[in-house]
Design a protein that fits this description.
The chain is of the alpha/beta class. The protein is about 45% helix and about 10% strand. The chain contains 13 helices and nine strands. Strand 7, helix 11 and strand 8 form a beta-alpha-beta unit.
Length: about 325
C-alpha cells in the first residue's frame, strides 16, 4: 500500500513538472485531476469555464494558506485538435512554396517580360512617338484607299497600267514597255531597269534590250543593296519585272524586292529606295510576239525547251522557286504597305 502511494506521488510530480503546474498544498499528492485541471477560487474548474476562457496563458491564484498555484485556463497543447495544429504550420509551408515559386526561372522571365512591356508602354506614350504612329496610320490609310499613288505615297504612278493577273501588283502592257525603251517617258522618269527573272539559258536565248538577269532571291537582294545608295525615293527610277509569262517567277521576285526594301527602311516608313515598280503583263513571250525587234538576240527560248532539261533541273533547285516544290504564294493585297 505504501509502495502504491509513493508510486502515485512520483507520477503526479513528474506529470506536474511536464505540464509546468504547481498543485495546491490542499490537494492530495496523487490527485492527477487536480494537477491537470486545478481548482479555482470558490470551486472546481468545469467544461463550461473553458468555453468562456479567452486566453491560453497561465495565471496565478492564491490559496487560503497563502500558497500560489499556477494554473492554465485553457492549455494550448491539450485542447487544440490535429487539424488546428496543422493549420498553424501550413501557412509557413505555403509561404515557403510561394518564395520558391517567386525565385523560379519561369517567374523571373515573366517578371522581366512585364517590366519590358511596362517600359514599352511608357515609351510609346511619348508625344513624338504618338505623332509618328499617327503619321504611319494616315499613310497606311492613304495607300489602302488610293491605288494611283506609288508605294511611298509621294506621287502618282507615271506609266499607264493595265489590269493583270496579280491584283496587288501594278502591271504595264508590252506596248508601254516598248514606249519606255524608245524614250517616250525620259522627261518624266530618271531611269529604268528591266529585271528578267528567267533562268540563264532562257535569258541567253533572247531578252529585252538592257535587261538584267536576276533569278534568285539572293541576286535580287544584292541588286537592291548595291543600288540603294544611288537611288532614293525622291528620284523616279522605275523597275520593271518579268519572266516568261509574268505568272510566277517575276511576281515572286517583285514581292521579294519590295519586302526587302521595306525592311531596309523600316525606321523611316513609308520611304523606299524603289517605290515605283511594275510588272510586264504577259512576260517576255507577249513582248517578243509584239516587239521582237527590241530583243537581243531576236529569239525566244521557252523554259521547257527540250535541249535544256538538265539546266532546268539545276536552276530550279538553285533558285528555289515555286516550281522546285514550294507552294505558290497567295495573292497579297497588302504588298504596298
Amino acid at each position: 500500500m505504501i509502495t502504491e502511494v509513493c508510486s502515485g506521488s512520483r507520477q503526479a510530480k513528474t506529470l506536474s513538472e511536464m505540464l509546468r503546474f504547481t498543485p495546491a498544498k490542499t490537494s492530495p499528492a496523487d490527485d492527477i485531476d487536480s494537477i491537470i485541471t486545478p481548482p479555482l477560487k470558490g470551486g472546481h474548474w468545469s467544461l463550461g469555464d473553458s468555453a468562456q476562457s479567452t486566453t491560453d496563458t497561465p495565471c496565478t491564484t492564491s490559496g487560503l494558506d497563502g500558497s500560489y498555484t499556477e494554473i492554465c485556463l485553457k492549455p494550448l497543447g491539450r485542447f487544440l485538435s490535429f487539424d488546428v495544429k496543422r493549420s498553424l504550420f501550413s501557412g509557413k509551408r505555403v509561404a515557403e512554396q510561394m518564395n520558391d515559386a517567386e525565385d523560379s526561372p519561369a517567374t523571373k522571365r515573366l517578371r522581366e517580360a512585364d517590366l519590358t512591356i511596362h517600359n514599352i508602354c511608357l515609351k510609346s506614350s511619348s508625344p513624338a512617338l504618338s505623332l509618328k504612329n499617327d503619321c504611319i496610320k494616315t499613310m497606311v490609310q492613304k495607300l489602302s484607299t488610293d491605288a494611283d499613288v506609288i508605294a511611298d505615297g509621294s506621287r502618282p504612278y507615271i506609266l499607264p497600267t493595265v489590269v493583270g493577273k496579280h491584283k496587288d501588283l501594278k502591271a504595264i502592257s508590252p506596248d508601254t514597255m516598248s514606249a519606255v525603251l524608245h524614250g517616250c517617258y525620259d522627261a518624266e522618269i530618271d531611269g529604268v531597269t528591266v529585271i528578267d527573272c528567267r533562268y540563264p539559258y532562257e535569258f541567253e536565248g533572247g531578252h529585252i534590250q538592257g535587261a538584267v538577269n536576276l533569278y534568285t532571291r539572293v541576286m535580287v537582294r544584292d541588286f537592291l543593296v548595291s543600288r540603294a545608295q544611288n537611288h532614293v525615293s525622291s528620284t523616279r527610277h522605275v523597275l520593271i519585272f518579268h519572266c516568261e509569262f509574268s505568272s510566277e517567277r517575276g511576281p515572286k521576285m517583285y514581292r521579294h524586292l519590295r519586302s526587302e526594301d521595306r525592311a531596309m527602311n523600316s525606321d523611316v516608313y513609308p520611304r523606299l529606295h524603289f517605290p515605283e515598280i511594275y510588272l510586264l503583263e504577259g512576260g517576255y513571250k507577249a513582248f517578243f510576239n509584239a516587239h521582237g525587234s527590241q530583243c537581243e538576240p531576236q529569239t525566244y527560248k521557252p523554259m521547257l525547251h527540250k535541249d535544256h532539261a538538265d539546266d532546268l533541273r539545276h536552276f530550279r533547285g538553285k533558285s528555289k522557286s515555286w516550281t522546285a516544290g514550294e507552294r505558290p504564294s497567295c495573292t497579297r493585297t497588302s504588298l504596298r504597305f
